[in-house]
Design brief:
474 residues, mainly alpha, Leucine-rich Repeat Variant, two-stranded antiparallel sheet, 24 helices, elongated
């Protein structure tokens, strides 16, 4: 550290003497400090390095518009490294300069490092130089404070979304993170912000389409759009649905054009939009129901792509939760929607991977919980298929899901479920379906770890113990 500081001093002397390349030594020194100290325990090096003093005395002046672009970019990058360790007043100074650096008069590398600094300053926890929280700093939150950020939101949305349009694969993640943090800032929607959201959403969707399997970019894009969906009680749900529908339909029509991560992220995005916040406008007025749902169900009836099947089940469940009566009144290729749901679940339980079968079991559980009377005629097919798959299940997740399915039915209607299982058998006519279920259940119950499934299965076991059925208790 002492050697690096000597180089900083030498850079100052070179600048005073009029040497044109003085900034190179200074830029290298700042980079060296950020590499050495950004990830270390600041309390451990407190005797030789204080982030606050270094930012105040060195970095802040190099962020000025008059600094050479490379030095300016390095200073902004240094802000990102030490954002969580500088006091809020200094953080706000750095934030204001970083926002100015997003302007069109800055070079693209400077704009990108400014986006990185903004992302760090808008997401870092308030910490002291010793690694603890600032006195009165509260918990995690924007380093600069939501109140300070709020007036900048319209400009940040506009400038960062423009920056995202020209971001390379390497810089897209940083830019998306900055945009995501801006969207998470509590704000009242003004006309200026409302006018920015469509362009912001368009650029995020384009970034998702260009992600080429980068799971971090895809995940950040989905979370950024989710922030728009949940903003102010879902006021943008209709807009998001309309702009996302073409991408969803494209995936359903030509799944081979998308890599696995993209397909999974798009399906996850669809589920999040459908699961709109309470009080948001009805889905029946947007293309997610009129166009995307029929395409989704048609795809699920024949598709064999795991990256679509598993998140597709989550989408189907979201539609059931949010608009059950409306969606179940639809028909797909002349068949009632309910019958299509059952066919998809049975197909995935029989032929799908363990992950797909586990996802399908959740659909079956939802069908029984929401419309037991309507699916009664499919009961033998669904339960026997589930039990056959349970008998050959290898993974704990699938066993847990299928046992949990039967447990829910026992809690819901113990007598009817037990009677059905007693009256049916699988390959061995001397062993009832009930005996097989209880054998697997008793063997693997201690290994179940999902808290919800444990609660359901234990409640069902309690119901069986309280039944007074001597044969069952034996």
């Amino acid at each position: 550290m002492s050697a690096v500081m000597e180089h900083l001093e030498e850079a100052g002397r070179l600048r005073s003497s009029g040497t044109e390349t003085w900034w190179r030594r200074r830029e290298a020194s700042i980079y060296a400090v950020s590499v050495m100290c950004a990830d270390c325990d600041v309390a451990h090096v407190a005797g030789i390095f204080q982030p606050r003093d270094f930012m105040q005395n060195v970095v802040l002046q190099d962020m000025a518009h008059s600094s050479p672009p490379v030095l300016r970019g390095r200073a902004l990058q240094c802000v990102a490294c030490f954002a969580e360790y500088i006091p809020i007043e200094l953080a706000q100074q750095c934030f204001a300069i970083a926002v100015q650096s997003l302007g069109h008069d800055s070079s693209l590398p400077v704009q990108m490092t400014a986006a990185r600094a903004i992302e760090s300053l808008s997401s870092s926890e308030n910490k002291t130089g010793g690694g603890g929280r600032e006195k009165g700093g509260g918990g995690a939150g924007p380093k600069v404070g939501a109140e300070f950020m709020r007036p900048h939101v319209p400009m940040l949305l506009q400038r960062i979304s423009v920056l995202l349009s020209s971001a390379s694969e390497d810089s897209a993640l940083i830019t998306l993170e900055a945009l995501h943090n801006t969207l998470k800032t509590p704000f009242v929607t003004t006309e200026e912000i409302a006018a920015q959201i469509p362009h912001v959403l368009e650029q995020i969707l384009l970034a998702l389409g260009r992600s080429a399997g980068d799971v971090m970019i895809a995940t950040e894009a989905v979370e950024a759009i989710e922030a728009i969906v949940t903003k102010n009680d879902g006021e943008f749900v209709g807009l998001v649905a309309n702009q996302c529908a073409p991408l969803c339909l494209s995936l359903m029509a030509t799944p081979d054009r998308f890599v696995g991560t993209q397909a999974e992220s798009i399906m996850e995005l669809l589920a999040k939009i459908v699961k709109r916040p309470p009080g948001a406008a009805s889905m029946m007025d947007n293309p997610l129901v009129s166009s995307v749902l029929p395409a989704l169900v048609t795809t699920m009836l024949t598709c064999e792509v795991e990256d679509i099947l598993q998140p597709g089940c989550a989408c189907m469940r979201s539609y059931m939760r949010e608009a059950f009566r409306e969606t179940m009144s639809m028909e797909i290729q002349g068949k009632p929607m309910l019958e299509c749901y059952v066919h998809i679940a049975v197909r995935m339980l029989r032929l799908g991977s363990e992950g797909s079968a586990e996802a399908a079991s959740a659909i079956v559980a939802q069908l029984f919980l929401r419309c037991r009377a309507e699916v009664e005629r499919f009961l033998p097919q669904l339960l026997i298929t589930s039990l056959v798959r349970l008998r050959v299940a290898r993974g704990q997740g699938l066993r847990q899901a299928l046992v949990g399915l039967f447990a829910r039915l026992i809690v819901q209607d113990r007598a009817a479920t037990i009677l059905f299982l007693r009256q049916h058998s699988l390959s061995d006519p001397h062993q009832s379906a009930l005996s097989l279920l209880l054998f697997i259940w008793a063997r693997y119950q201690p290994e179940f770890c999902d808290s919800y499934q444990v609660n359901v299965t234990v409640a069902a076991l309690g119901a069986l113990l309280c039944s007074g059925d001597d044969e069952l208790l034996r």
